[in-house]
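ugh ok so i messed up the first submission bc i forgot one of the chains. this is the corrected input, ALL of the components this time, i swear. 495 residues overall. if the numbers dont match what u have on ur side tell me asap before i send this to the collaborators (the ones from the other lab, u know who)
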Amino acid sequence: MPQEDHDLVFQKTCALLKVFNVNNIELTKDTDIATELEIDSVAILDLIMELEDSYDISFPMNLMSELRTVGDLVKSVQKLVSEK
Amino acid sequence: MSIFDKFGPLSDLYNSILEVGDDPFSVCMAEILSPTRALIDGREVLLAGTNNYLGLTFDPECVRAGQEAMAKQGTGTTGSRFANGTYANHKALEQALAKFLGYQYTIVFSTGYQANLGVISGLTGQGDTILIDADCHASIYDGCKLSDAETIRFRHNSPEDLDKRLTRLGQDGGNVLVIVEGMYSMFGDVAPVAEIEKITHEHDAYLFVDEAHSYGVFGDKGRGVSEDQGVLDKIDFYVGTFSKSLGSVGGFAASNHPEFELLRCVSRPYMFTASMSPANVASVLEAVHQIEKRPELRQTLWRNSSRLYDRLHQLGFELCADKGPIIAVKMPSREDAVTCWNWLIQAGVYVNLAIPPGTPNATSLLRLSVSAAHSVEEIEEIGEIFSRLAEMRRDAMPTSSDASAKSPLPV
Ligand SMILES: Cc1ncc(COP(=O)(O)O)c(C=O)c1O
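and heres the new structure output, hopefully the right one now
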């Protein structure tokens, strides 16, 4: 996937994460999803459903254990999109 | 660094709940007086959060069956179903359930939790896909974790969303298992099982329905939401628990699949745990008969549920689902839910408290479950206490549009 798509995935993910960013920190690829945002285990799964629908991909829950940061999430989405 | 450090935020939250009053998550029933009353902290409290839908925990026939079995067969089986832990009554219970539900095969597990773990992880493996309703119970999520299959959630109670996700998966998913519940445990809402059945089978997937809260409660004969919606014979895997309407502990799964019994030698949660105790098996066997013989229990349950639901609705509480034996009262915030829970227990009624993290849509709830064993007076009493709660809340909050109530503030 070209670079601009990478940025687009990042932007879209950040937009979806916005509601959980209660302390209004700057979201970067290194932002730790679980500890830096007010997001619980169910909400992150709901967000994955949104990403699945945005990109028409299946994002298995099994991948969750590998996700720590916003960057990890973006990379996973990109990978699934490229495998379509 | 302590091994518990990762629980820091949760521990802070827990402590802030303890500052409000009693600990909602370690209530001790010092004495159980009946299916609907207990002594808690030296006070007699009305129980409105027990999942004891038919009140069979003190049914004289069930108690007698349990006592006799314990006297004759001992206190425990000291072994797994797979080894020395299958007694004649475990088989008799499996046969009774199979006959009652109309399935060819039934397997009894030690708990409902293990039935879900055992069936999900036994059926699916690497290369397979599980689609679960987003609001499924923790035991279903854990069953998926124990399996090597890929798990995908679909939007709660949405056959259209399931259809979309199954279509998206195409032919790539291996064997596909779709999992829903009959009645959902938190909100008490009912799944559109008939529509989900149709879509699942259009996609050549298997359907698994957990009727934990709906067995004995829904359907003409009490066989659950699947019976109520006319698709009982189309469910591939039917799972239930003995810990709710059947008033004991244990779980089961039923199926018509000719190879279903293979699970007995591949399902680890079946094989590597001790079987149900003789007393539990015997009381459940009797409870299965009681449910079959006494449809009036179900009628009483629904009458009680309807009465309490109407009362709470009239009082202006926001209820999360249609009329049914689970009545979930939505609270505007976690703070509010904890405060009200404490007020209620002091006023003499126990309900379940459900707060985020982990609840659907981060909702905070006071969850009530109604029992056929509640007398009309007890239902009135619960209603009366809630009416005082409504009054107290009106006094405490003069403006109904409490702007801060929506933010996920710690308690
Ligand atoms: C939907 C559902 N499935 C399974 C279970 C587990 O049942 P048990 O308590 O028998 O382990 C529960 C309840 O606890 C439940 O609500």
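quick check: Chain B has two domains: 5-53+295-402, 58-293. that seems consistent at least. Confidence is low (pLDDT under 50) at residues 400-411 of chain B.
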